[in-house]
What does this fold into?
Amino acid sequence: MIGARKDLLGLEDLSAEEIVSILDTARTFREVLDRPIPKVPSLRGLTAANLFFEASTRTRLSFELAEKRLSADTVNFQTSGSSVSKGESLKDTARNIEAMGIHLVVIRHQSSGAPHYLAGNLDAGVINAGDGTHEHPTQGLLDIFTIRERRGKVAGLRVAIIGDIAHSRVARSNIWGLTKLGASVTIAGPATMMPMEVERFGVKVARSVDEAIEGADVVNILRIQLERQRSTLYSSLREYARVYGITSTRLKRAKPDVTVMHPGPMNRGVEIAQDVADGEHSVILQQVTNGVAVRMAVLYLLAGHKAPDESATEHPPVKETKKAHGEPSLHPRR
Amino acid sequence: MASPLCIRGGRVLDPARGIDRVQDLWIVDGKIAGLGEDAPADVRSDRAAEVLSVKGAVICPGLVDIHVHLREPGQEEKETIESGTLAAARGGFTTVACMPNTTPPLDDRPRIEYVIRRARESGHARVHPIAAVTRGQMGESLTEIEELVEAGAVAISDDGKPVRNAEIMRRALELTRPLGIPVIQHAEDPDLKGDGVMHEGWTSTRLGMKGIPDAAESVIVARDALLAELTGGHVHVAHVSAGRSTEIIRRAKARGIRMTAETAPHYLLLTDEAVEGFDPRTKMNPPLRSARDREALIEAVVDGTLDCLATDHAPHTDFEKDSDFDSAPFGIVGLETALGIYLKALVEPKLLSLPELILRMTVNPLRVLGLPGGTLEAGVPADVTVFDPSRRWTVRAEEFASKGRNTPFQGWELPGQVLMTMLGGRVTYRAETLLAGAR
It folds into this structure.
């Protein structure tokens, strides 16, 4: 269990101890992934539903893989071709899914707070796989896991987050998690992409990207999107690349062994230069691998398991719980 | 002459005439017969008179709400004129002005007449329709304003949406000026609002919600103050939510510009922090704003910058409101909780006296609309509200007369239980247990 939680909705809600407990559990699963047969029976008999109301490739694949590596049965649901496009409400969709006996629900939704709504309406555990521009807790966890793996600690590190903070759920989850674990976070981006009173997160707001990167241990580069509805926020991708794009020249201001991260998918040559994306400092692919381990840990803990003993790397314990194997509820509580 | 009714022992508040004293209120044939000794002797000596004792309660002119959505025609699943006016009666209101954003909108004579007829057939309050400024509320071409007024419209508004085009706003003000009716503006710049769902501030930043800056409201208030000055027309600003708007209105009034304004109960008790749990019952437009805005609004109510205390009663079905925040419609119900909330926000903390409150809920909205009434003068229809300002009650949405249950005040304890509402001498609401004797 993560505390006594049924759901993982955001890192704002978690204590530092809970975050560390998830990261430690993830380390165990990270080792499982390197085995010849990277699969454990921990969630056998449980069914996880991946509800993706918004397009996603890597997060959906990562969750699905994590569920399969834990031996859960999985069902996938995507808005195109589903009854949501016929006007069915989130509530009815959720009730139908629960009537099918689902134990864990992974939800990606374009509306901030949608997973919180589901969590309040379902007995099943709910994992937020990204809600609007609010949080993306498993991305935050996998980023912090990767930082910890590379730099051995989180406390005291200088982390720069560059890009559209206002519209980034990745930024929010990273900021909550990192500041709780004692890192010092500096953000930079166009003024139009800085949300109001952002300094109240406990972050420093740099005046330029160079200032933010100066002496940084970690640079986390956010994907920039300038589609139609955000067209008033900035002039062009070209201008963005010139002013905020992370190039190897710019990166020289950071610590020599700086760790470069990106949640993907990348716009190469825009927010991140080609040689930085593929360079020696980049851990972008490790982030993807670690994502599976972190999501396994979250699923495992929410299914009612205790964090495994750190030394018990052989096999995470398989524990049957009442919740996991009891009768699934047909009556969502309110 | 029918048997007179005497409402006895209450504190009679008739702020328009400066009356505030414990006195009998006599009612005969649906009209006010007089106060105490001023009532005709034959009325006072009528042995068939019914006496209703309301010791400790306030007796005041029936409350007036300048801003409600009755949803009829077209959205009867949300509210009807019958259910909405029943909610009004329960809340102590005898008169409401209803907004034209129905389906279809109230933009021609038959639709205005339809509302008036339905109110006559099934209403429990006086219903004054407000007509649309533009056809279909599309913001493009003006409605036939004079005919709509002839049919009974008391104002024009595209509420739900702003009159976005400054030229159309100018022309509407020019055309309404000789008619003596206001243009009621839903002050909101649609570009600044964008697809925002809550106030833009630290809470929206934290929750990752799209924000609506206070300037979205205030820039239109400022523009309209200039247009009112240009035309001499009367702009009434609906549901003011932002402190900066009150500064503009205050200055406009000081310059002699014909600008009046209202606010709604929730802006005086709640702030954007209430959105914290993503509860769609805290979603309305304009949104709940910052603590600073809330303080500024209260100050503006006290100094009279905000003339009217309205509700912006906006019923929706449970189905619509039981969803994620973004998908839910804007709006909450207000008629059945407004008096209690205003008492709690303004009178209990001693910011406003009871007579001053009643003024802002009776005479002021009527005067904005150019309507008579709002007093307990002898000879006027007996529109009377009796409430006990000290009696506390708990908000239970499931017991509302309104079809809408969408209130953020569910479970709150409020002062000021309504004991009786009377429309032209007919009891439209009576708290059974408290007034067993009344008929």
